[in-house]
Amino acid sequence: MLSCAEITELTTEHMERRLRGAARLQFMMHVTMCRHCRRFLRQMKATAALLGQLAAPLPGTDTEEFLLARFREIGVERGIVAGTGLS
Q1: How many degrees, rounded to 5, is the angle at CA 48 between CA 45 and CA 24?
Q2: What percentage of residues in the chain have a pLDDT greater than 70?
């Protein structure tokens, strides 16, 4: 059977429905028998639901300028001609 630490590591995969076969069965068996992991899973689902309701913050001009400068730096480092995507 999976340990509580393993359940913690697999919770995101479970919530995104990426666990298959034996891993999914072991996850569900453990959560069924372990009240601490059931509580953890409920908390994670509640957190995800609340975060899903938040509006994404718009980047400020400082953030936009920083990202544009960094993208330019990466382009220079990789030898990409600015504005064309070509090297």
Answers
A1: 45
A2: 87
